[in-house]
């Protein structure tokens, strides 16, 4: 964690273990930490030091399987209500770490009076250590300034909206922002609005004081306008730089690269694959298209290969040409037949072109 | 070299636009030549494709090179003759401009902003023409239909799109107006092949035309540096910039709306009936062509334009500036010109069973209140990176300076009616998901951005009050 001040709660130490309370959870303390096992919903909670800020929570743990838990906390001043934020802990061996940034938690209280974890039924995890961290004022400002200049990638959502600069202390996962609706964004717009309001209030006050001196009022309004223009241009430099980064990323990964090395945004080598596919579909009225991700690949490949149309197995057509892209569970058996999740799909054939085991062109023998 | 076909493909349509505007102004020109040329880049292609569409659906031509070319040549000939005999005039629009010398730092600042804008425009052109088709609405709608029209040489209504196969439907994107795909097919016909960069490059031309129009319209009210700043402001809106660099149609559509709002506004300010007629003729044709561009033209903007005109005429009637007969005449005349485009398209839609919504059709019998829309709209409008600070500045200015805002009531009312109509659709129909999941709301706002920028910069000029 990048937070400057970190508190280490070592759950292998008896003194620390005594600070935690288990409710509906079997907690077995041992030298390596605490083994938590829940039959039903259970809780593992600790009171915090008064007014100790918490910006990040990091778990050092192990788990035999993926575990669904929630970070829970009690807000200062709230009675007995606990707030929660769901977390999916991946299965991991001892010593694995998972950091929960509170930046995306809209109800988070920076100085909770208590915090802990809620375990879903039938959950087994071993907690070795819990670390809480917070940013000092200067580091918080530095992190916010750094995150202000952190650009989003060009993704399918870019045509619909732009998150804009976020002033979280931790770098936000912009994809994860959409976990809750409305998203818990911390837009820099809030800061700009405060500045705008201050400028307007100052101008209104100035105008009131100098209401009998119109030349001073006029300069004030011109000054206010100039201040707004400067704010606008500053914000535009930020968003304009992000826009230029879209082109730079595309230029570096796609436009300037030879065909075989091209990768485009989140579509990877799809377009390289399609350029090869078009050579084989040019004289075919249709082809079978297999993919685990009909969106976006089905619509996209249909566009590129038109008038040759993609078909799916459910359509009942049996073209001899099979295009496979990003299809999980696909393979060729010893008889050179396509097999999907154990089911044989085709007659014998041959692979005409292959980018990977999940992206290739296959034609059945006549 | 391939972009030579872009120039060639625009020549006749722009001429059609220029001649159409000239005829609509008759012997009372109200637009400056540069404004007329910029608007011709927007209206001309739409008008050319509309006439081609009529010729096509009546069986006269296919969507081949010969079909497109013959219609455009014939149209230029007919319009040219009409112009020569009935509308040719040495009259020029009378406009006085604000001119004065500015401090070096002002001119330097404007030049720096123009250079910055040019850098972003260049990057946008690269994104538009050098990258593969990426977004849904491009490979499922605009470019997909263009490619189908080009290959089949006809308007095809029944389409297989999206994540389904084996079924075709004319609902959804099949019901969209065919103007944009037809123009892409025209460019492909000229080139002899479908080329992504070529068919997408037209969107950049339209983006430049909208920016130019913004500058020209603002220049009528304010000095050059501020008008240039207004053009920069529009280009600096992040989501507008993204769309100007994508083969989507909302930026083009926004240019038509800017022209309508501006022409209506100028019409109401006109000193005589003849000038009013010129302004409103242009607005009326643009309104008609709106309906042939996107379905929102029918559902939202045609009614908005008629409401604005109706209210303005009613106010004049109430103030006894005109009589009822004159007011009714103006309103009906506007509707008739718009109907030249709207009516044939409407009849075609009804006869062919096409829908009127966007990709998802909307039924007014399926209304219910969606409480999660307003928080999403609030966030999206004021707390995301789409519009920099424009919505806040717009709101502050029209509220604090409400008296001054009355001077530009036409574009303001037009924007408010259109926005409230969009909001109603999101709040009370199944299209609420488009607002809650942020997939449609901001794209609707793109269409209103030029008018909103116009209003904000107009207020800025009034605040600074730089005058001769």
Helix content bin of chain A: 25-40%
Structural class of chain B: mainly alpha
Number of helices of chain A: 6
Portion in beta strands of chain A: 25-35%
Strand content of chain B: under 5%
The overall pLDDT of chain A, averaged over residues, is 90
The total count of strands of chain B amounts to 0
Order of helices and strands of chain B: HHHHHHHHHHHHHHHHHHHH
Chain pair sharing the greatest interface: A-B, 69 and 67 residues
Task: Describe the protein in words.
The complex is a heterodimer of chains A (366) and B (468). With 366 residues, chain A is α+β, with helices and mostly antiparallel strands. Helices cover 28% and strands 31% of the residues of chain A. Chain A has six helices and 19 strands. Chain A has helices at 14-17, 137-148, 189-209, 214-255, 270-281, 294-305, and strands at 5-10, 20-23, 26-30, 33-38, 42-47, 56-63, 67-74, 82-89, 92-101, 114-119, 123-134, 286-290, 309-311, 321-325, 330-332, 338-340, 343-344, 349-356, 359-364. In chain A, the strands form four sheets. In chain A, strands 1, 3, 4, 6, 9 and 11 form a six-stranded antiparallel β-sheet that branches. A five-stranded antiparallel β-sheet of chain A has the order 2-5-10-7-8, with no helix packed on it. In chain A, strands 13-12-14-19-18 form a five-stranded mixed β-sheet, with helices on one face. In chain A, β16 and β17 form a beta hairpin. In chain A, α3 runs antiparallel to α4 (214-255). Chain A is flat, with a radius of gyration of 29 Å. The model of chain A has no long low-confidence stretch (mean pLDDT 90). In chain B, α4 (104-130) packs antiparallel against α7 (196-219), α5 packs across α6 and α7 runs antiparallel to α8 (224-236). Chain B has helices at 4-25, 33-57, 65-87, 104-130, 136-152, 179-191, 196-219, 224-236, 238-244, 250-269, 273-291, 296-318, 324-351, 373-382, 390-400, 402-405, 409-428, 432-436, 441-446, 449-464. With 468 residues, chain B is an all-alpha fold. The radius of gyration of chain B is 22 Å and the shape is globular. The model of chain B has no long low-confidence stretch (mean pLDDT 93).
